[in-house]
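During the second year of the project, the team shifted from modelling isolated chains to modelling whole assemblies. The rationale, set out in the original proposal, was that interfaces cannot be judged from single-chain predictions alone. As a representative example for this report, we include one of the complexes processed in the last quarter. Its constituent sequences, exactly as entered into the pipeline, are reproduced here:
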Amino acid sequence: MNFPILTVITFVPVIGAIVGLLIPKEQEKTIKWYSVAVSLIPLVLSIILWVTYDNAAGGMQFVEKVPWIPTLGVTYHVGVDGISVPMIFLTALLTTLSLFYSAYTIHTRVKEYFLLFLLLETGMFGVFVALDFVLFYVFWEVGLVPMYLLIGIWGGQNRLYAAIKFFIYTLVGSVAMLLAILYIYFNVGSFDILEATARFSQVRPFMQNFTAVSLAFWAFFLAFAIKVPSFPFHTWLPDAHTEAPTAGSVILAGILLKLGAYGFLRIVLPIFPEAFSYYAPAVGVLAVISIVYGALVCMAQWDLKRLIAYSSVSHMGYVMLGLAAAAASLTRGEAVTNSAAMALNGAALQMFNHGIITGGLFFLVGVIYERAHTRDLHVFGGLGAKLPYYYGIMAVTGFASLGLPGLAGFWSEFFVFRGTFAIIPIYAVIGVLGVIFTAAYILWKIIQYMFLGPFNEERWGKLTDMELFEKVTMWPLVIFMVLFGIYPTPILNLFNAATTALMGRLL
Amino acid sequence: MTLAQIIELLLPQLILLITVLAIFIADLADTRKEKGWAPYVALAGILLALVVSSLHWGREVALLGNMLRVDRFSVFFNGVVLAASALSVLLAISYMRPRTPYRAEFYALLTVVALAMTLAAGANNILMVYLAMESISITSYVLVGYLRQDAKANEAAIKYFLYGAATSAMMLYGMSLLFGISGTLDLKELADFFAAGVPETSRWIAFPAMVLLLAGFGFKTALVPFHQWSPDTYEGAPTPVTAFLSVGPKAAGFAILMRVFITGLPRFYTDWAALLAGISIVTMTLGNLVALRQSNIKRMLAYSSIAHAGYILIGVVCLSLSTTSPFNGINGAMIYLLAYLFTNVGAFLTVIAFEEATGSTTIADYAGLMKRSPWLAVTMLVFLLSLTGIPSTGGFIGKLFVFGAAIQVQFYLLAIVGIINSAIAAFYYLNVVRYMFFTPAPEPASPVPVPRPLRWVLAVCLVMTFVIGLYPQPFMNLAAGGAGLLASL
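Output from the structure prediction step:
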């Protein structure tokens, strides 16, 4: 394994963006297809990565480690395990689909848009591969700038407000994280994530100063919970997701939210197990509130895009619940380890599933908005007969979102609740309410208000069904929803090996 | 020490002096109006001095009866202030040409400030400190008011002068108090005097003396509450001079502040550290909060410059004696100043190019700059992100080091105030980004021309901002010279 596959995956997009500067901005078509082509390289490589990752051996693979700032002990250290491999694939897939979709729908300032998108892709890959805190932090913030510009330039009416709100929220979290990273450095003597993990699981030096550990834990929590986002840090999300251009919302919901959840899995749980298990009830409460409150707010929305944005708050709450359950299990001994691993599997799987499902839903919002120029659920109705293909795809994606057995969303919710129930049953019982509300808003709000009921022939008579490029964008996502709904084993095996190893280390 | 050795160590200063004289004399001899050679002579002299000074790297000697030191600390700061001067010369060429006929003198005066700043970087005696500071100040007053027909520039110069005169009188009083109790002006002897078990009552003189000294140092570095001159002066001064003031004399002021307090008054570390910590918090917070409300970009950058002085102070406050840790505080302040130099000059460069093209310094007029001049807008974006402290730029490395120093000595309050302030600062930096990228350009959206000397500066600043941000190791080695100061503690 001499080919530095992770470095290539990470840096191909940004190099592509720099080279792309040479294309004159008038040649919009060239820029569009050039960007799609560039994004195909990491997509192909991420498939190779998934196929060649040796799950039996487990652990970090494809590791590259080069000194970067020797005096500080900062290294360029990258590697992947069973959790990051599917996330990298998800990133590559959604970026390619977004660029492909945007190639047909973006008509203003084309060059900037596509090059920023590639820059954003590098930032996201970087977070999933980084094994050094400084490197992690650099990538974490690098993705912030292009997303800010994407929302601010190509967003909806309220885009200026949404863009700055997104930026400031994330920045507040990340500067807090920076202090926590420095705190770890002065306790471990290194910026290496794996070293910190190993050191902390063995000697647990933090236990001597629980106040300081708690501060560091909450600093990380703030950074990641804002990104996830967990109640009460979620208020940037509806604005950003609603105002962002379609592909921007897809990436926001599909991947950027996962960066926060990934941070919990990669950093908070392994490095602060005591603090996390101590505060697990609080985190669990926030998770349950996110699930139930998010779903209830969805039911009150009349803007389709805003509804789906809030559904992210609710669905990412499952991830947080799984994490809280796993953390809570640490004080219970080995009896519940299996359930903890199951909860974590559910959380990780939910990260992936939410990416493809909500990514798909945002594409579908884009499809109707391009035609109707409104997202107001009051004005639709009876579209099912007029747009059968759209109806079908929306129904599948919506059902996947509400956790219908046979589609991908079911498994992640099932595992989260199965794991949580064995550890902190009351949270699971309340959290399950969210599933009911989800079914309610998907069926009542989306399916009923859009596709059933009387059809307004006068207003919507000229609507056309999905174009080929829109279908092509949705096919891969639908395929994964069905595939992982029927047979989730390939991805579960990856997650399971990683989470079992993690729980084994922590106990 | 032989005369030859002294001359060799003073060579950078001598080169600058010769450059100044050469420009003055040639100015008299040359009866033509253009004087296009003047900036390039100044530039050549400054760069030569920079090179010669760099060759002194690694030396640790005092000369002229301990008046001046040549050590790694002074060489580092010579590099910073001379680079600031060289970049400012380039910034001024196209700006000054249409505005004043007396151009040669301008560059000669700028070189005088450069000379005074190199003396400040090495000053090892209270008297030398005073002389260097006054030379910087008096020449700077002239530079600020150089465009005499401009009423705003006159106001700026008068304000600058009045504040400067008052604070330097206070500083001088503080110096006289120190001399009164110790009987020496030499920093090392001062430290020895206080270390030798003087009665506790000496603190009652030393503390007010330090406060008074801080008035002078705080004036130069624009620390609250000695900052009030800076917004008006920054706004009214010719923009290249503003850029220069925000990086050159500021760095020199910090060099003096660190050397006087660390090598001269280590006995009272807890006193001045507490004092500086308070000033740091107030400076960051006030600078950032007021910057939020500015509509003029020069004033905004003035308040931002005040805020950055507050961050840099964190490094001075949180110095630690651990020789093994890479976060000793002093190197944080040094790297911060270096990164800030290139970042801020880069930001001012955009301001200058824009002002030359449109005559405006209002932030709202930057609307649609991305459409008018994409390269200028994108580089400005980089500089603003660096000022915000976003990783992969030099500004992040500076913040990493000063916050690291604060965490190391467990001064969490300072670190937390610092990060809250960085988040506040993002608001007003991104406000400029908002206009440049999100707001449509006014018609006709003509491009903003960037004269050739400015392009060189732009290239240097952009490259250095990224190099410091992505590969800071060499600069950390340079800043390690700061540890030499700490060794004397």
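The longest strand of chain A covers residues 61-69. The beta strands of chain A are 61-69, 74-80.
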